[in-house]
Amino acid sequence: MRWLVGWSRSAAGTGAQTGPDGPDRPDSPGPLVEPVGARLLWGEPAPLWAVGDWRPDEVRVVHADADTRLAVLGRCGASDDALRSGLLAARGGALRHLTAWPGSYTAVARVGRRLTVAGDLAGARPVFHAAWSGGTAYATAALPLADLVEAELDIGYLAALLACPDSPEALGDGTPYTGVRRVPPGHALVLRDGARDITGYEPTSSLAVAAPQLDARRAVEGVREAMVEAVRTRLAAPRHALVYGEYGEHGDGHPPGGGAYDSNGAYGSSSAYGSSSAYGSSDGAYGHERAPGMGPAPGTGSAPGAGPAHRRTAYRRGPAPGVGADLSGGSASGTLALLAAGLPGLPGTPLGFGTGTGERLLAVTFNDLASDGGRTRESELERARAIAANPRLRHVIVAAGTEALPYAELYDGPLTDEPGPAIASAARHRRRLAAGGADHLVGHGARQVLDAHPARLADLLMDRRRRHLLKPVSALARADGPSAHSLFVPFTVYRAARRLARTSYREGLEGAAAELLAPRAYDPYGPVPGGRAAGGPVDASLAALTWCRTGPAARWLTGEALAEVSVRLQSAAVRANGLTQRPGERRAAAALSRHAADHRVLEQAAEVRGQRLHAPFLDNQVVRACRALPEALRVQPGARASVLRSVLAGAGIRELPPGWGAPSHAAHAAAGRAGIGASLGPLQDLFATPLLADAGLVDAGVVRGALHAAASGVPLPLDGLAELVSAEVWLRRLLARRGTCWTGPAAPRRRAVAGGVPPRPSL
User: Fold this and answer.
1) Peptide bond just before 296 cis, omega within 30 deg
2) I want to staple 384 with a disulfide (CB 3.0 to 4.6 A). Which of 296, 301, 365, 757 is the partner?
3) Of 410, 702, 687, 335, residue with least CA distance to 554
4) What is the Cα–Cα distance from 433 to 222, expressed in whole angstroms?
5) Taking residues 628-641, what's their average pLDDT?
6) Residue 601: pLDDT band by 50, 70, 90 thresholds?
């Protein structure tokens, strides 16, 4: 786990924190409070720390003069000269220059007394802030700030996260911790003497006049250039590998030479990153203890902070040296694997077991032997084998049984910043990622940045481009197969799109708030009413043709929780007068933000020691290039596969296996249903006395009935059940942790959420 943290305060508030050797000396005596196991990048009056197992090449600091400096943390493809040029541009107010370099990173610019922290466009690298000590503290993780301000749990936010996960109107800028706020994607946090301002750095389009669009050919070329540059940035980075062997053979986890492994597995001396967990002290504050009622720890180690068995054995095995990539047979992962294998060999600076020019890319395919994915899984495996025939690919198939199904090993895992559905399937992802490379490419985010959100059909109607709706609505009519309803699908979809185009943003929010208060006329754990199969493409598209929609877990929330979310939507409707986005544009951005947040939870929940996950589709430059694609191109059936084919063709890769680019959702649903059936007993025990029920969010009996119905084959929204299970597990891990993320004479005396779950919300 890696994060950065700092603060800005008025001159009166910084005096007590300044050492006698000067206000800006990293070697001066430390402040009265500092994060555990941190590395100081610059000191007072606005200090900045890097915390966790950062690699040396992932932390870069450049100076323009004594009062102007820039820190870039993460994988950035810009040279030092380019960083200085961007710093000088940002000094004049052009903040967008801090986000225009290839890669995925967080930029912190300090110009005199002004501090600027730029978030990314997708939200995969978020920025959080909180009022503290007469100023503002900021970080790229929410839990350290919650510890710093001794925050309590925000039950209203959890209710909104379960009821409307992809609706920013319900979530706002909140986090699960009271007083800790999130900077929206595409914005920067600007601090001056502790005063904060949230500034957007992306140009906004008019609601009345459509923004000028690039030619389709030029837009696709822009996507190709961005994708190639994103992959090239990862290949050009220094190679990293861990040294395995005698360090963990005896179970103590202590290597020779005076250093120590921290509880995240990072090696370093006490003067670097420290020998403690990134989220707390060595007593396991990161979440390695067992939550109440979650069973015994599977083999507690003797090293300070040692947790589950997979963390102890990670000293002897881990990711392979070099670069790896997922190869599921789908278009997104296949594109990244072929690009990484097809680009000219780039020399990497060997660190540990380094590899240089001509290295073979490690392609990992996950083969689920326990769930019945049908022909979809078999066809994906065949496509993966065909792609892996490339001589520059080294193919590894990870076969797994019931032990790798979703909901397996729920009692074993780290604490994440916030709940997310990836917690329920973390063990499954960890098995796949452990077979990958030290730098591993994944195709997450491709669907969100390339596919057209159904609400974009309303954008086309607002621009009077009705003829472009013909192909997408015809494809939806064929999606559910021939039936009596298929003849009416085009008219139904068209009416829904026209209704959305004629509905104002405020009316849409007020309608969604009213629906949350309406009596539910269906069984909360029974089948979904309607003539078509639940969760079909037509149903999903119709549900998405709205300004705001409820999530799949909303049906199992209590009336009090839904009323809390309804109040949030009504308050957002009152403030909705200044909206300048179209419905499709806004809904697509919200879906991307939600997916990026879930990807960040996946990174934390399934973290493998010494490995870095890279999602190039979530990079700023790739997101910008994909947003330039014309809407008429986006809404065409198979648009994502067509764009990625053009990307590969531009890179010299034209031979693809038959069926490449076909959508695949059946295997995911089959794995989820099989996982509920295999873990039904532990899941029922988990919801015997759930903390979510103590907080007034769910009724325990209703959730247990829904789990039993899903295991019996009732067509329920499995994603909603995954969100409920993940939220319950996250709450238990949060309340089980000890210690805080801070040390020093003025460190907070108690951790965040020290008082347990607050009582039931009341209106």
Assistant:
1) no
2) 365
3) 702
4) 30
5) 89
6) very high
